[in-house]
Amino acid sequence: MLERIGVAVTEVRQPKHLAHVERLIIPGGESTTIGRLMVLYELLEPIRARAQAGMPLWGTCAGAILMARQIADGKPGQPALELMDIVARRNAFGRQLDSFEADLLIDALGDAPMHTVFIRAPILEQPGPAVEVLAVLDDGRIVAARQNRLLASSFHPELTDDDRMHRFFLEL
Ligand code: GLN
Question: Could you tell me if residue 10 is inside a domain?
């Protein structure tokens, strides 16, 4: 998606790669595994330090879980960045709704609804005063939020053709 927009992209797999980027996206996957690998490859502290120094950081789904101040229904001792003043409730949707799609109105992205894809997604809860809620489901549950240059989304904008969320991130 970023390449389509015309932005240079590189993968961050080791601490030295972080020096090459001015912003970072932590993708979906399994937050327990990503967290463990971040510890193993000594990326947890450097990413936290960069984000605290103002680097824009966006977590989608598992990535959002890793950014939360607290993880609900996580594995005990699950490593995380703990950067954003939200609680991420893992696998918050019941079985039939494990994965689903929805059209959401997201004010920050303009008037047209955004088609969103949720895959065993978390819900974001208890946003602190510094957190701006960006997107909610019909029942009010929070699925995207921002705190300064930190962005968290439960859904996967990279799986659609809609690049507005990516552009929003690039403007942070
Ligand atoms: N269920 C996964 C987790 O708890 C997240 C799924 C995803 O990233 N699509 O980490």
Answer: no
Residues of the chain above pLDDT 70, percent = 99
**In-domain check, residue 75:** yes
Domain around 115: 18-171
pTM given for the model: 0.96
| Alpha-carbon span 117 to 47, nearest angstrom | 26
Rounded to 5°, the CA angle 44-151-8 comes to 80
Q: Which two tokens stand for residue 37?
A: 């690998």
Ligand 1 centre to CA of 33 (Å) is 10
pLDDT given at position 98: 86
Has 61 been annotated as catalytic? yes
Ligand 1 pocket check: which of 89, 120, 123, 155 to mutate, most ligand atoms within 8 Å of Cβ? Answer: 120
Does residue 4 form part of some domain?
Answer: no
Q: What is the pLDDT of residues 135-144, one digit of tens each?
A: 999 999 999 9
The active-site residue out of 125, 156, 166, 171 is: 156
Q: What are the helix (H) ranges across 24-155?
A: 31-40, 44-52, 62-67
Question: Domain total for the chain?
Answer: 1
What is the mean predicted confidence (pLDDT) over 107-126?
A: 96
Q: CATH no. for residue 94?
A: 3.40.50.880
